[in-house]
Amino acid sequence: MDLDSMDCTSTIDVTDDEEIHQDRHSYASVSKHHSYSNNSNANAASGLLPTTTSVHELLECPVCTNSMYPPIHQCQNGHTLCSTCKNRVHNRCPTCRQELGDIRCLALEKVAESLELPCKYMSLGCSEIFPYYSKLKHETVCDFRPYNCPYAGSECSVMGDIPFLVAHLRDGHKVDMHSGCTFNHRYVKSNPREVENATWMLTVFHCFGEYFCLHFEAFQLGMAPVYMAFLRFMGDETEARNYNYSLEVGGYGRKLIWEGTPRSVRDSHRKVRDSHDGLIIQRNMALFFSGGDRKELKLRVTGRIWKEQQQSGEVGGGGACIPNLS
Question: For all residues of the chain together, what is the average pLDDT?
Answer without folding.
Answer: 77
